[in-house]
Amino acid sequence: MKKIKKFIVRIILLILISLAFPFPAKAQDIIETIPEQCGNSLNVVRAVTSIPEGSYDVFAKSNRVQDEAKATLLVQPILGSSCNELGSTLLNTNLWSRVGGYESKSTEPVSLNLSIEKVSDSFGGSDSPSVIFVPKLSACADINMCFVEYDGKQFELQPKKISFKIDLLKVGILYDIDEASLSSVIYSVDNKIVYTKDILESFNLNYVGDGRHTLQRNLLFSNGVVLRDETVVNRGFSTDGYYTLISIFFTQSKAIQLIASGIGIIGLILLVLFLSNLIESRRKWRKNHIANTNNTSHDTVVYKTYDQILLIYWLKKTIRIMLLIVLVGIVFLSIYSHVLGVFTVDGVSMEPTLKDRNKHILFKLPATLGAVSKNGYIPKLGQIVVVKEYNEDIFQEDASQEPRYVVKRVIGIPGDRVVVLDDEIKVFSRYRSQGFVPDDEYKWVNDRSAGTSLNIDITLKENEIFVVGDNRDESIDSRYYGAVKSDQIVGTVIFY
């Protein structure tokens, strides 16, 4: 009878997990279903995921220079209480280190737990370690130099991310190309997507501005495999900014096409009005000067002279109006792209300050000036900013997606030390070396829960910003993906 009850409970739990599993926001709920701790809870980072059936070599790597500590990887089935050790290794920041082997006999979700013996600073966000599963028969001879040949060229084989964004342990799996077909190729400049095509071709340098840039091509295959190559080019600096102007034209081609279409429609309307006015003016002149006179030859000459004057007048007027429309279009595009904009809140991470689906004005000018000066834009503590997220991770969660825009509050600026401990965020700045709790002073949130079980201790480098959502329990922010760079800031939210 007990076995039947246990079986029924497991079936119900499996159904609940299968319903929640596709949504990253439920990852924490899945972790909470684990019946017992697996590893040292103080120095362990976890991820919940499904490993496809097969035999794997498992590797791990640290992402922080100061953290080179011994770590043990443990696996625990969600529907079981056993905690199995896969092996131990010394985490290295530059190379993948083999932890051990793993045989996956089921696709049921498991909890992967990397227990770290000793850390100089707590792991957190983008600084957290990574684990990769490599099939035993992989074509990649060396995981640290994993290059394969495609279309006569060498490309780096990228692991596919299988962990949630909320997971503090990044997990990936390495697939081979096999017989998969090429779906699309994403062309990026300095990790920013500029265009996408269905075929592999040489990079279109018209998208590359003045100066030194890194060009990337991501090849997406039908089975989820991603190949990547990277090239550095230096176009120099032209006195007239020729390359930059050309790149703006190509990268903003859709906006330019929209404006050109609008100008074309207005121009067509003006042309119709011009012709109708010209015909009407000729009709009136003919009625008043020719109909009641016998001196036909003289009046015809006068008529032709008047017609020419009228034509020139209307042409000049039309050209002035067209130039004015073009100027207004350019000014509007420049203001919308670089000075002011409107954005819509997507999600509840900033409630109650900003409500989901509400629209707000975005002030972009400081970020624009920071980009032009190459110094970046450093907002003030407490400001709400919109950040453009790029997937600079080695794991391609979805390389085909455009960068995502998120709205967060600035809680740490370069030079600050941000500590998350026991559901409290504390900031140590150069002016307040003893530290302070921003939530105590500014009353940004009602719920003081930090929303993460992992302690974080991070000192922000130059051009790094620590951002969080006011709704801590529902926000994926710097506590999970680390500090953001100043050049990722699109603008500051005003009038909220």
Distance between the termini: 60 Å
Share of residues in strands: 25-35%
What's the structural domain tally? 4
The main sheet orders its strands as 16-17-25-18-19-23-24
The gyration radius over C-alpha positions equals: 31 Å
Q: Please, how many helices? A: 8
Portion of residues in helices?
25-40%
Q: How many β-strands, per DSSP?
A: 25
Spans where pLDDT lies below 50 across 5 or more residues: 1-36
Integer average pLDDT = 75
User: In terms of quaternary structure, what is this?
Assistant: single chain
Structural category is alpha+beta
Coarse shape: globular
Query: How would a textbook summarize the main sheet?
Result: 7 strands, antiparallel
Any overview of this molecule?
With 496 residues, the protein is an alpha+beta fold. The chain is built from 8 helices and 25 strands. The strands form 5 sheets. The chain has a 7-stranded antiparallel beta sheet with strand order 16-17-25-18-19-23-24. A 6-stranded antiparallel beta sheet has the order 8-9-15-14-12-13, with no helix packed on it. A 5-stranded mixed beta sheet has the order 5-2-7-11-10, with no helix packed on it. Strand 8 (147-150) and strand 9 form a beta hairpin. Helix 4 (253-289) runs antiparallel to helix 5 (296-338). The radius of gyration is 31 Å and the shape is globular. The two termini are 60 Å apart.
What's this entry about, in short?
The protein is built from eight helices and 25 strands.
